Description:
This protein has about 350 residues and is an alpha/beta fold. The protein has helices at about 10-20, 60, 95-110, 160, 220-230, 275-290, 295-320, 325-335, 345-350, 355-360, and strands at about 1-5, 25-30, 45, 60-65, 70, 80-85, 90-95, 110-115, 115-125, 130-135, 140-150, 170-180, 185-195, 195-205, 210-215, 235-245, 255-260, 340.
Amino acid sequence: MYDFAVVGVGPAGARFARRAADAGYDVLALEKGEVGTPLACSGHVSTDIWEYVPDEARDRLFQNRIYGANFRVGGPNSKAYPFYKQSEVSNVIDRVELDRTLADCARDAGADVREGHTVTAVEELDDRVRLTVSVAGEAGTVQFEAKMVAGCDGPTSRVRRALDLPEPSETLHGVLAFDPDPDDGDFVDVHLTVPRFFAWRIPRGDAGVEYGLAAPPGAEVNEMFDALTSTYDVETEHFCSGAIPIGPPDRTTTRRAFLVGDAAAQTKPFTGGGILYGMTAADIAASTIDPDDPETLSAYESAWRDELSREIRLGHLVRRCYSFPEWLQRVGLRSLSGEIGVHMDKPSSFFSREHLKKLL
Ligand SMILES: Cc1cc2nc3c(=O)[nH]c(=O)nc-3n(C[C@H](O)[C@H](O)[C@H](O)COP(=O)(O)OP(=O)(O)OC[C@H]3O[C@@H](n4cnc5c(N)ncnc54)[C@H](O)[C@@H]3O)c2cc1C
């Protein structure tokens, strides 16, 4: 029997598998497809990302350096309100390669990472969990047992549903596609033209330019996406889409299971970004949970909330501004734009006394 079975090998699952294996546990990590695919993510992250990957991976992953964002309440020809730093704010990275690199780190640490393994059922017993798994290219199913299961299986988590854990407060629908023309510009564009969220343009260096948006369910995302690319007058390719969970459920643990990453909606409500929050929570899980002691799950539940809840709460506040009437958005953007001193994963840095004083 394994100590931990990890369902899903995205950033959260790979990171947890690596850290738990580093701690000497027997770890099985199951990924339904091929690690990193299909792509449904911009890979726009703070420079903290480099703490999670080996130095030698940097050249392979890095695509562009970003110094700020041009906010607009209309299309590309409307007035831009720039927010920027003199130093880089964030990087654009190859997201598929990130997942592969993180999975390799988990393998190197000793985790048994298996692709083409889809978990179809999860059963929680008194002293163990039992997973039913369908293996690509094989008939029937196989079963695996572990002392605990980590649900790192993304926004529509099967583990969450199988164990009757509550759902995130909200799920947005995100779409993106690429124009292959290289662009190593310093700014991303953010258009507050979408209900309760935004549309974006991200220069990705030699990998081209990404256009995307996210919106609540029911919004006509495809039509809004066509409107976005036609205002830029570009043809895009490799269209992809994915779900973005916002607002963590009240409970992310059971007696022998815990959720990490998008499965637990550990995301930034004002950008939808979840790569770094998910890996932060994965590290917390690996350092707090003992598979022989189910009581330690409550330590994880409170530790990840202690670390991320305040940022998530403040992130909700920032997101509310996206729904202000246009005139108020203009007033806000005009008065706040300029050089900023914030960390993109930490809305608390925006609300810090030091930064507010600078703005005033
Ligand atoms: C359009 C869009 C743009 C985004 N842009 C950014 C961005 O720029 N920066 C950022 O930080 N975040 C971004 N995000 C969010 C980011 O992609 C997620 O927060 C991140 O991928 C969460 O990582 P995870 O490991 O929790 O889940 P995932 O990356 O979703 O990984 C879950 C894994 O579980 C696997 N899986 C699912 N079910 C099963 C099963 N039953 N059995 C086995 N395996 C299973 C999946 O195949 C997947 O590999 C974006 C999301 C979208 C939709």
